[in-house]
Amino acid sequence: MNEIVDRINAVHRELGTKSIPAGEGKVVLLRRSYDATVEDVWDACTDPERLARWFLPVAGELRVGGKYQLEGNAGGEILRCEPPRLLKVTWVLGENPTEKDVSEVELRLSAGAGGAAVLELEHAAVVDPDFWGTFGPGAVGVGWDTGLHGLAEHVAGEDFDEDAWQHTPEAKDFLTRSSRAWGEAHLAAGADPDVVAAAVEATTNFYAPAS
Question: What Pfam families has UniProt attached to this entry (predicted)?
């Protein structure tokens, strides 16, 4: 239990807005430190063999201007790659996307206190107002929390099988706490408490439904 709480509390969550080619985007920002070097975390996030051990298999032309595809998930174009500090990609889910379906993910790495690697992940997307009103930032934020949890397992020397993990009591607790944490970030950004409470409930029911 305490380990799960520590993993949730290790992440700073923040909301904002940002102009992207698709329009004015909602931004979720996650920041956390890893007990590893910047170079090691960069390698874990960009080497296909390592990425598959904690996130998803990836294929494509893995270079600036090239296309990538995560197995069963998003794909897009690699916009910037500046090892070992910055990776920026478009992020597209589904077939036949419209311009507004193209969001952007930016990964930034820097050295923190004691040599720890500080990772910032920013996801900017144009979000349907009804969808945002129903689920809030947790709709995407909980998924990224899970990714950063998997990365923590990996850099600590353990592979992370999300499919197997999703069916454990630990996962249900983690996902529930993550949804609540995104509710707190939503409140801090000025959202109405009743709207936040409803969004947290909807997001929790999606990621960690009652059995």
Answer: AHSA1 (PF08327)
Alpha-carbon separation of residue 168 from 164, 165, 171, 184 (angstroms): 8, 6, 5, 25
How many of the other CB atoms lie within 10 Å of CB of 190? 7
Identify the CATH number of the domain in which residue 178 sits: 3.30.530.20
Which two structure tokens, joined as six digits, stand for 104? Answer: 């952007």
- Containing structural domain, residue 10: 2-207
d(CA 181, CA 12): 9
Report how far residue 118's alpha carbon sits from residue 112's, in angstroms, rounded to the nearest whole number. Answer: 6
Question: How many domains is the chain built from?
Answer: 1
Instruction: Please state, in angstroms and rounded to a whole number, the distance separating the CA atoms of residues 52 and 71.
Output: 9
Condensed to tens digits (0 to 9), the pLDDT of residues 18-43 reads 999 999 999 999 999 999 999 999 99
Q: Where are the beta strands (DSSP E) in the chain?
A: 12-20, 23-34, 58-60, 67-70, 75-82, 86-91, 103-111, 117-125
Neighbour count for residue 189 (Cβ, 10 Å): 16
For the entire predicted model, the pTM comes to 0.95
Asked if residues 119 and 125 have their Cβ atoms less than 8 Å apart, the reply is: no
